[in-house]
Write a sequence for this structure.
């Protein structure tokens, strides 16, 4: 059985042109979708900024060791050791630990398909694509579906055991109890030693042994076969956390601000409220810029698809098609940038009218100042008698 093979496909000019014309509709949809995305993002960013600002003005710091009923429904900041007494158990491998979380990691020895393509455009507008498919075996944590492989004969079995996270139901912070979403946020993982584990000799018809700090499911750990598995475990042990949320009797819930965005912050380590809100504002800024860049790329891709038929039309001469393709991408960028900037600017006028108005006023003032700036008189030449 060969572990690689090459496939050559050809697409004529009419087929390419038809495909690019079909892409026009998708391009229009992507271009249009970018506008509400950018607009929504600015509104979301302002709402989150104002909500965090509101929360910082309201939050009070309390001790986690005692519950003060007068703080019920208030936005509080507290910190301390998040811990639990629950014994978590993985019944399949009989592994247990007193921890906030017990995580089972599974990797399987599988076939993997890789492909590498090169495309050559020919005179007349046709396109030849040479694709090399190669197959190799290795350890992978996700299950690879071999039914989609180009070449048959590289079959992967279904994974017997999935990855699994077992989470404690009751995790306390001093006198308080954390809710499920807060527990889920705690994730400083450490490896769990398996050297004291009591292993069955076989599991699901396969030999089970301990190799290093992993269970090995297969007959020959030094000569892995497709379908063999490695199983390891991690735990989230009790750890210091800081929290900002609404106190609700002996637990917490998200605090609904008047600005609109709920506040439920949890960070690892001991930190004061100011640091937590500053970190949340930085995170909001990063999300805002991430969505902005995504919206701009969406708009550019849409316009590129819209202009693609022009490049295909010119591809009867390959160098001409490449030149037009480059030009249309530049044109798409030149249209995208002002469209995106105007959308963001109008959104700022809608969501931050005072700030946007101030910026516009400053810009107009600078333009006027430059226009009416006094110029130095030219030195007149002396008259010749």
């Amino acid at each position: 059985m060969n572990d690689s093979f090459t496939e050559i496909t050809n697409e004529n000019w009419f087929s390419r042109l038809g495909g690019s014309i079909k892409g026009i509709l998708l391009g229009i949809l992507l271009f249009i979708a970018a506008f509400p995305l950018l607009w929504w993002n600015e509104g979301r960013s302002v709402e989150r900024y104002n909500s965090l600002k509101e929360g910082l003005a309201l939050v009070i710091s309390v001790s986690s060791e005692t519950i003060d009923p007068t703080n019920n429904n208030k936005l509080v900041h507290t910190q301390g050791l998040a811990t639990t007494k629950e014994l978590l158990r993985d019944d399949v491998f009989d592994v247990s630990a007193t921890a906030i979380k017990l995580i089972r990691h599974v990797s399987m020895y599988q076939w993997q398909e890789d492909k590498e393509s090169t495309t050559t455009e020919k005179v007349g507008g046709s396109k030849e694509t040479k694709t090399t498919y190669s197959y190799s075996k290795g350890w992978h944590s996700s299950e690879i579906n071999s039914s989609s492989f180009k070449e048959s004969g590289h079959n992967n079995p279904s994974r017997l055991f999935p990855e699994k996270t077992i989470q404690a139901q009751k995790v306390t912070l001093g006198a308080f109890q954390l809710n499920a979403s807060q527990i889920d946020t705690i994730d400083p993982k450490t490896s769990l030693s398996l050297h004291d584990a009591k292993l069955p000799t076989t599991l699901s018809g396969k030999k089970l042994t301990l190799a290093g700090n992993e269970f090995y499911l297969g007959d020959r750990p030094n000569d892995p076969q497709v379908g063999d598995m490695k199983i390891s475990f991690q735990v989230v042990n009790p750890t210091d956390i800081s929290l900002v949320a609404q106190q609700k009797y002996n637990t917490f819930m998200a605090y609904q601000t008047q600005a609109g965005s709920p506040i439920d912050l949890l960070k690892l380590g001991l930190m004061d409220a100011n640091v937590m809100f500053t970190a949340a504002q930085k995170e909001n800024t990063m999300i805002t810029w991430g969505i902005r860049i995504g919206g701009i790329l969406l708009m550019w891709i849409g316009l590129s698809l819209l202009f693609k038929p022009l490049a295909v039309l010119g591809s009867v001469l390959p160098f001409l098609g490449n030149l037009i393709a480059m030009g249309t991408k530049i044109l798409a960028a030149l249209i995208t940038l002002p469209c995106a900037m105007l959308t963001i600017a109008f959104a700022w006028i809608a969501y931050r009218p005072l700030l946007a108005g101030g910026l516009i006023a400053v810009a107009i003032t600078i333009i006027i100042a430059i226009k009416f700036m006094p110029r130095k008189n030219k030195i007149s030449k002396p008259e010749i008698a």
